[in-house]
Write a structure and sequence with these properties.
This protein is mainly beta and 333 residues long. The chain contains one helix and 28 strands. The strands form seven sheets. It has a four-stranded antiparallel beta sheet with strand order 1-28-27-26, with no helix packed on it. Strand 3 and strand 4 form a beta hairpin. The chain starts with a helix and ends with a strand.
Length: 333
C-alpha cells in the first residue's frame, strides 16, 4: 500500500510539473488598420468569430485566420460585447452614449438601442436569469436587460464604480466595485445586493473571472495583485503577483488556468492546482497596452488587443493609439 501511495504521489507531481512546464507564446498577430481606442474583446467559442471593440465600431474577425468578416458601426465609443446565441443577438456597450446596442449575430446589423446608466462599460450574459447585464461606471449601477424584449427590466444600484462582472450560473452575480475595493454579490432573482466582500489587500479591482466548479473568484487589482476569493463566503483564499494595469482576467475551464492581461506588457499565467492552491506558471511578454483578453474555451487560445501609442496627454486617462497600429495578439501553447 505504501508503494502504491508513493507511486500515485510521484505521478501526480509529474503531472503538475508537466502542466506548468508548457510554454505559452505569441503565435500570431491580427492587424486592424482603422483608428480609435479599444477596450474589451470577445471570442465566440461556438462559432469562428472574434469581436473586437475599436473606436466607435466592433471589428468582427475570423478567429482562426484574422480575416475581416465584417464591421458593426455604432455612434459612440465601444467597450464590451456580450453574445446571446439562443436569441441570435449580441449586445454592445456604448460608454458615452449611455446605452447598449443590439445587433444580429448573422448579419451584424444593428437592431436597436437599450438605454443604460452613465458610461456603459463591462457587459455579460447570465445563463441563470437569461439576462444581459451592463456595468455603468459613472452612475455606479448595473442595467438588467431582457433579450427577449430588449428592454431594461431592472437597475441595480451600487455604492461605487462597477468594473467587470460575472455569475456563478446558479443565481448570483459578482461585480468588482472598483471604488470601494470589494466584490458586490447580487441575487439574480431579486436584483438586490446580498453581500459586500472586501478584497483587501487588493485595491481598485478591474478584471474578474470565475471557476464555477470550485467557486473561486479571480480579481485583478491595482498594486500588482490578483486576489483569489471563495465565492461562497467572501473569504480571501490567496493572492498572487501580477504586473501593472490589469484590466481583464480570463479563465480556461478545462485547463484550470487563470490569465491576467497586464497593460504594462505581460500576461501572467496562473495554474489552479486545487481550490486553495495556485501557482504562477509563466509571465509572458506581450506588448505595452495589452490589458484585456478573451479565452477560447475550445481551442484554448487567448486574444489580446493593443496598439502603439502617442505620448500621453496629461488630461487623458490613457495615451491615444497611433492610427494603423491596432492589432490583436494571439497567444497559444
Amino acid at each position: 500500500m505504501k508503494k502504491f501511495i508513493l507511486s500515485v504521489a510521484v505521478v501526480s507531481a509529474f503531472a503538475i510539473s508537466a502542466v506548468t512546464a508548457q510554454t505559452y507564446h505569441v503565435a500570431n498577430t491580427y492587424h486592424i488598420k482603422s483608428g480609435g481606442g479599444y477596450d474589451y474583446i470577445t471570442v465566440d467559442s461556438l462559432s469562428n468569430n472574434l469581436y473586437v471593440s475599436h473606436g466607435t465600431q466592433v471589428n468582427v474577425l475570423n478567429k482562426t485566420t484574422g480575416d475581416s468578416i465584417g464591421v458593426i458601426k455604432t455612434d459612440k465609443d465601444v467597450h464590451g460585447i456580450a453574445l446571446v446565441h439562443a436569441m441570435g443577438k449580441g449586445y454592445i456597450t456604448n460608454g458615452s452614449a449611455n446605452s447598449v446596442a443590439v445587433f444580429d449575430l448573422k448579419t451584424n446589423k444593428i437592431l436597436g438601442h437599450v438605454p443604460a446608466g452613465e458610461f456603459a462599460d463591462g457587459i455579460f450574459y447570465d445563463t441563470f436569469s437569461k439576462k444581459v447585464i451592463s456595468c455603468n461606471g459613472k452612475s455606479k449601477n448595473m442595467t438588467v436587460i431582457d433579450p427577449a424584449t430588449d428592454k431594461a427590466v431592472a437597475t441595480i444600484q451600487l455604492t461605487g464604480w462597477p468594473e467587470t462582472a460575472t455569475s456563478d450560473g446558479k443565481g448570483r452575480f459578482y461585480v468588482n466595485n472598483a471604488e470601494k475595493s470589494e466584490i458586490d454579490v447580487v441575487d439574480a432573482k431579486t436584483y438586490k445586493i446580498i453581500h459586500t466582500w472586501p478584497l483587501a489587500p487588493g485595491k481598485g479591482p478591474s478584471g474578474l473571472a470565475m471557476d464555477r466548479k470550485t467557486m473561486r473568484l479571480f480579481a485583478g487589482c491595482d498594486g500588482n495583485l490578483l486576489v483569489v476569493m471563495d465565492a461562497t463566503n467572501g473569504k480571501i483564499v490567496t493572492t498572487l503577483p501580477i504586473d501593472d494595469e490589469c484590466d481583464a482576467v480570463g479563465f480556461d475551464v478545462k485547463l484550470k488556468t487563470v490569465y491576467s492581461s497586464n497593460g504594462e506588457g505581460t500576461l501572467t499565467i496562473i495554474k489552479e492546482l486545487s481550490p486553495d492552491k495556485f501557482t504562477v506558471a509563466q509571465v509572458l511578454k506581450t506588448a505595452k497596452g495589452a490589458r484585456t483578453n478573451a479565452v477560447d474555451q475550445i481551442t484554448h487560445k487567448l486574444y489580446l488587443p493593443t496598439a502603439d501609442f502617442k505620448p500621453k496627454d496629461p488630461k487623458s486617462f490613457r495615451p491615444a493609439a497611433i492610427p494603423g497600429t491596432f492589432r490583436v495578439l494571439v497567444v497559444n501553447q
